[in-house]
Amino acid sequence: MLALAEPYLTAISQARTDGDFVEIAGRLARDFGFRSAFLVEYGERHLAVVHVLDTDPRRLDWWKDYLSSGLRQSTSYIQDFMGRASIQKLNLDRFTDPNDPLLGYARRMDLVDFTMLPVSHSNQIVGVAGFCGEVDLDDRQKSALQMVVYTLFAHVRRDRRMGIVTAPEPLTPREKEVIALSAEGLTSVEIAERLGLSARTVNQHVDNVAEKLGTKNRAHTVAEAVRHRMF
Hints:
The protein folds into 2 domains: 2-160, Transcription factor LuxR-like, autoinducer-binding domain (Beta-Lactamase, 2-Layer Sandwich), CATH 3.30.450.80; 173-227, Arc Repressor Mutant, subunit A (Orthogonal Bundle). 51% of the residues lie in helices and 15% in strands. The chain is built from 10 helices and 5 strands, in the order H-H-E-E-H-H-E-H-E-E-H-H-H-H-H. The protein has a 5-stranded antiparallel sheet, with helices on both faces. Helix 7 crosses helix 10. It is elongated and about 60 Å long. The relative contact order is 0.15.
């Protein structure tokens, strides 16, 4: 998993502008077989968009329309979907009035069928990444995609954030071992066999690291640990 994600993580660490981040997102989308990608950061309410990066410049007007359109009626559906905090495929046809003219516009903008990845921080949904196109990803690709997206979001948010940012609590030697092996794509069972532990103990170490980093799932935890160079 880490080997698959590493080229993008390196590029993200060197990025300085929104244009750099958009270029990385575009390369990520193409390399994984998608046509385009977008990153949306939310404010306190899920549909209060505060920042958008999109690899398709045609969609600038889409985001303006999105904020004032009937799609706001889908709030509960989207919140339920985003609350799953995992990669999901989304189809606007399922919850949008078929007579809504905005749906036709969405089709022209390639925004009907896409894969969505909710992004959380400190157990709160802070945004979503979308990848346009029908692609069946294997588990290794999904994990790598999550790691890259979380890292990309972290850097975009960091570059726009003001105030003092404290460093996370250091990891124990065992936590470093577990997270390093997780970054290689090993499962809890495989890590347990490698380190002579039980899978339950491995999961507890991952949970401990997640608590230190304020992350919600393993991919996010590994991404943050990589970003902070904690192992």
